[in-house]
Automatic annotation (TrEMBL):
Signal peptide location: none
Keyword Lyase: yes
Name of the protein in question: o-succinylbenzoate synthase
HAMAP family: MenC_1 (MF_00470)
């Protein structure tokens, strides 16, 4: 199959910088893809790399798009190399995305929320409306002032970045946060690979006292896989791998080396949806699907996969819209119609 191909790089500023153990992140950059088939039907895709997580860089993704010219075939798409995992995701999902509607404008293609089942793919829409969302809190003290608003919006699972302020201060804020949260809330802690052995043990000892902790995410650097296995066996709080399983080949390796606790999958950077689907259908793994701060285009494709492949009642880490200011659909229409 042959498609006409267009793409637009984009930049979106976070409302406030996202603080993680790696430092601050101010601007989300990516690429929107548009395919048109011979009947005029449109498919949308998105490439949203995170190089500090192990995906390709934005310039390498842009170069890949440029050398394609203005036409693309299914064969080309299925032969994108695994060193361009975000491109694999963006191009493959454009094949499945949006070929239900002619190009009446972006607004017609994207229902406002996943709950509004207004398109013919309503089976998936219905599935998606049943998924619970986890909401990303701001790091540090700010979490104490934010969680209530988010609770009122209906969120029951929250994620908080740790290793952002000195550990003793952070544990004090954590104690306040966990005591403020209703007992029915769940809290995920994400260390973004920044702890050392003793800090990881310290956090896990603190966590033993609180039943609301769902898991500790990526406590140690990727190289310290055996130490994370050890931690997973030592404490009652589950450990989730994230940076360690950023791409599909890493995911396979960790599974083969015996990881049976939680795997965080970010569809936007993990690689080919087709190969991911295969892996998840062959292995009964405990998966948390998670956002890469993509736009509604990448998010819809990622949530389709999450709805299809997650089965253990884990909230998806896509409660991140409040990190941006603008109305997404207006923003996308502008990007497409007035590119700079
Ligand atoms: O997973 C979530 O709940 C939110 C998304 C998130 O935390 C994230 C988003 C972009 C890059 C890295 C991460 C991360 O999990 O470390
Ligand atoms: Mg993480």
């Amino acid at each position: 199959m042959l498609y006409q191909f267009e793409f637009r790089p984009y930049r979106r500023q976070f409302k406030r910088a996202l603080s993680t153990s790696h430092g601050n992140w101010d601007i989300r950059e990516g690429i929107i893809l548009r395919f048109t088939d011979d009947k005029g039907a449109i498919g949308w895709g998105e490439i949203a790399p995170i190089p500090w997580f192990g995906s390709e860089t934005l310039p390498s993704a842009i170069n890949f798009c440029r050398q394609l010219g203005d036409e693309i075939t299914t064969e080309t798409i299925f032969s994108i190399p695994s060193k361009l995992p975000s491109c694999q995701f963006g191009f493959e999902s454009a094949l499945n995305f949006g070929f239900w509607i002619l190009d009446f404008g972006l607004k017609a293609d994207f229902p406002n929320s996943v709950e509004s089942a207004t398109n013919p793919q309503s089976k998936i829409q219905n599935l998606k409306s049943k998924i619970a969302y986890s909401c990303l809190l701001p790091a540090g003290e700010a979490a104490l002032h934010q969680w209530q608003t988010l609770w009122q919006q209906g969120y029951r699972t929250f994620k908080w970045k740790i290793n952002v302020v000195p550990i003793q201060d952070e544990i004090k804020i954590f104690a306040k946060l966990i005591q403020a949260l209703p007992t029915s809330a769940k809290l995920r802690l994400d260390a973004n690979a920044g702890l050392n052995w003793s800090a990881a043990n310290e956090w896990l000892k603190v966590c033993e006292n609180y039943s609301q902790i769902e898991f500790l995410e990526q406590p140690l650097p990727v190289e310290q896989f055996d130490a994370m296995l050890d931690l997973a066996n030592r404490y009652s709080t589950p450990i989730a791998l994230d940076e360690s399983v950023a791409t599909l080949s890493q995911l396979q390796t960790c599974y083969e080396k015996g990881w049976r606790s939680i795997f965080v999958i970010k569809p936007g950077i993990v690689g080919s949806p087709r190969l991911l689907r295969q892996f998840c259908q062959q292995h009964d793994i405990d998966v948390v699907f998670s956002s890469v701060f993509e736009t509604v285009i990448g998010r819809q494709a990622a949530l389709n996969l999450a709805a299809e492949l997650s089965h253990r009642d884990r909230a998806v880490g896509f409660g991140v819209n409040h990190w941006f200011n603008e109305d997404e659909e207006t923003w996308l229409e502008n990007l497409w119609n007035n590119p700079h």
